[in-house]
Every structure is written in structure tokens, then in C-alpha cells.
């Protein structure tokens, strides 16, 4: 029996939609990362993009447990000496709620050009509206 290797031409690209309202941040990010990589499909091949497009709505209503809103800190560097900037999760949720979920998913993706290409298939919106109705996204099963 030969090993199955998916070919990019044989992969069907579907669109899934996820409502992030009252979902736990890390658990939701895990499910999204698996869908982007295609790990929930039987034809999953690690070096081929077998994943789907994922549209996330209501990212501003994602939930976290404990005191993470005050304790979790996001760091970034400007590139200049002394340019380390930091924000708490509460500040990030107030300014860019989409970025919180995108960074959580990014941390679960492979760190190579395939992972970067798969991350581009993630579309995150803070509110309930999105411009991808023409793709007819299906509801993603989170249970």
C-alpha cells in the first residue's frame, strides 16, 4: 500500500465561519490553526496546503479566564535602541481585538513560508459583519 500525498490541484478550498462570542481564546485559536493547516482532513499532508479559509466574526467578544486581562502582556520592538513596547491584553482588546486572535493563531502555526501562506487564509473581524458572503462560508463545528 502506497502512502497518499495530496496534490495542490486536488485540494478543494472551502470557507468556514466561526463566531468567537464567549469562546475561550486559546481553545478557539487551536481549532482555527488546525483548520488552516488542514489537520482535520483525511488527506492532510504536512508539506502541502490542505487547509481551508477561516472567517472569524465577533473577535471583540472572545473570552479569557482568570486575571489574563491585566496580567497577559504583548511585547513588540520598534527596531530602535530602547524601543521595547508592551501592552496588556485589555489594552489590545480595546485597540485591536482582531490582532489578539491573530497572534494566538500565529503562535500555533509552523514558522516557515507554508505557515505564513496558511495564516493569510485567516480573516478576522471585530464585529458580526464580514465581506465574504459570496464565498458561502459554512459554520465551523466547535464542539
List its salient traits:
Ribosomal Protein L13p, Chain: A; globular; single chain; alpha/beta; 6 strands; 5 helices; about 140 residues; four-stranded parallel β-sheet; two-stranded antiparallel sheet
Description:
29% of the residues lie in helices and 17% in strands. It has 143 residues and is of the alpha/beta class. It has a single domain, classed as Ribosomal Protein L13p, Chain: A. It has a four-stranded parallel beta sheet with strand order 5-2-1-6, with helices on one face. A two-stranded antiparallel ribbon has the order 3-4. β3 (73-77) and β4 form a beta hairpin.
Structure, briefly:
With 143 residues, the protein is an alpha/beta fold.
Q: Approximately how much beta-strand content do the residues carry?
A: 15-25%
CATH superfamily: Ribosomal protein L13
In whole angstroms, how far apart are the ends?
34 Å
Order of strands in the sheet with most strands: 5-2-1-6
CATH architecture identity: Alpha-Beta Complex
Number of strands: 6
- Radius of gyration of CA atoms, rounded to a whole number: 17 Å
The helix/strand class is: alpha/beta
Shape estimate: globular
How many distinct helices?
Answer: 5
Provide the CATH top-level class.
Answer: Alpha Beta
| Average residue pLDDT | 96
Which fold does the CATH topology refer to?
Ribosomal Protein L13p, Chain: A
The helix content, as a percent range, equals 25-40%
Amino acid at each position: 500500500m502506497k502512502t497518499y500525498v495530496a496534490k495542490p490541484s486536488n485540494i478543494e478550498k472551502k470557507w468556514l465561519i466561526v463566531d468567537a462570542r464567549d469562546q475561550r481564546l486559546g481553545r478557539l485559536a487551536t481549532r482555527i490553526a488546525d483548520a488552516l493547516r488542514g489537520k482535520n482532513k483525511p488527506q492532510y499532508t504536512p508539506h502541502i496546503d490542505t487547509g481551508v479559509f477561516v472567517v472569524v466574526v465577533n473577535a471583540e467578544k472572545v473570552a479569557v479566564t482568570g486575571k489574563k486581562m491585566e496580567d497577559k502582556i504583548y511585547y513588540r520592538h520598534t527596531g530602535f535602541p530602547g524601543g521595547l513596547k508592551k501592552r496588556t491584553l485589555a489594552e489590545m482588546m480595546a485597540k485591536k481585538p482582531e490582532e489578539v486572535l491573530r497572534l494566538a493563531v500565529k503562535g500555533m502555526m509552523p514558522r516557515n513560508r507554508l505557515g505564513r501562506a496558511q495564516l493569510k487564509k485567516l480573516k478576522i473581524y471585530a464585529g458580526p459583519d464580514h465581506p465574504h458572503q459570496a464565498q458561502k462560508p459554512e459554520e465551523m463545528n466547535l464542539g
